[in-house]
Amino acid sequence: MAGSGERARHWQYAELPGVDLLRARYVRKTFVRHTHEHFVIAAIADGVEVFHHGGGDQYAGAGALALVNPDTPHTGRAGVPEGWRYGAVYPSPGIVAGIASETTMLRGTPGFARPVLDDPYAGRLVHQVLRAADEGNALAADTLLRVAVTRLLRLNGGALPRREVRTAGARIAARARAVLEERMTEPPSLERLAGDLGVSPFALLRAFQGAYGMPPHAWLTDARVRRARQLLDAGTAPAQAALAVGFTDQPHLNRHFARIVGVPPGAYQRERKNVQDARRQLFVASGAWQNRQLSQMYRPTAQSRTAPSYGTPSASGSPSDCPGSPSG
To answer: Which of 35, 144, 165, 178 has the highest CB neighbour count under 10 A?
Structure first.
């Protein structure tokens, strides 16, 4: 990856449980259609990302955010020759729901209404969260994450539609999914699966695509990678995780894992181990250090020409963006 100018780090911070973090620069990288269990909040720093979402291509350039709700199929690729550089946070649905209940008037399950939002201020907040996590500043990381999510929900929030199985096709798709989950390591052929469900292969394809946004084989690969992540989080070696979820070997897992998560499984697991070690030796910063970090300006580096700061959330945005002051 280094030789191509591409680089990525996918990690967690012990003091932000339920949140994945990512910094990356991609040029030739292509993400296949996949989903996430968590929300995707990706702040584009340079270049352009293109991702297929909701039936069409979406374009997110510098200063914009790519926003994807949980379990929503999407892809990802560069929209310009030089690629794109971004930082992303992946908060769990429970975290977002908790923030929404405290700081907004949204009803139902909260989510994002539009997949692209042009809001440089919110983008800076995302990069500040990553910077705070890097520096071990729990107070800043937690505060800035909550301010960012609150702002995005107020600008672009709405209730996610409830998924109810009403049609015969949707019920068939749900039954097919249950079979694939149960037989992940030895899935049946499409014809066999359709026959067991009493429908034709093409009828099953249409029903599954309509319910889950991708054909059964693509959904199965996505599900295998999700389960592999759980095994890697628990300390299972990548080679063993590959076989446990139905891939033929570790290179097979490596290829699909990198095309969905963005980093190889070995690098992903090393970061998880670092978090586990950090939880054993939690560092609690002094109040003076915390205050100094919150007022410190972000200094640009060779990899980051855009310079967010740790200024208080209301310094460059509306005071109503601060958690604890609900509004519609």
So the answer is: 144
The whole model's pTM is what? 0.83
Whether the Cβ atoms of residue 288 and residue 296 lie closer than 8 Å to each other: no
Q: Extract the tokens encoding 306.
A: 């855009």
Q: Where are the alpha helices (DSSP H) in 11-119?
A: 93-103
C-alpha radius of gyration, the chain, whole number: 21
Name 110's bridge partners. 159
pLDDT digits (tens, 9 = 90+) for 40-54: 999 999 999 999 999
Query: In b/e form, how buried is each residue of 304-323, taking b as 16+ CB within 10 angstroms?
Result: bebebbbbebeeebeeebbb
> How large is the average pLDDT for residues 5-27?
96
> How much is the pLDDT for 128?
98
Whether 157 contacts 105, CB under 8 Å: no
Residue 213 backbone zone (phi > 0: left; psi -120 to 50: alpha; other: beta): left
The per-residue pLDDT for 18 is 96
Q: What are 51's two structure tokens?
A: 């991702």
> Alpha carbon of 83 to those of 27, 62, 86, 147, 285: distances in Å?
4, 11, 10, 29, 37
Interatomic CA distance for residues 298 and 126, integer angstroms: 13
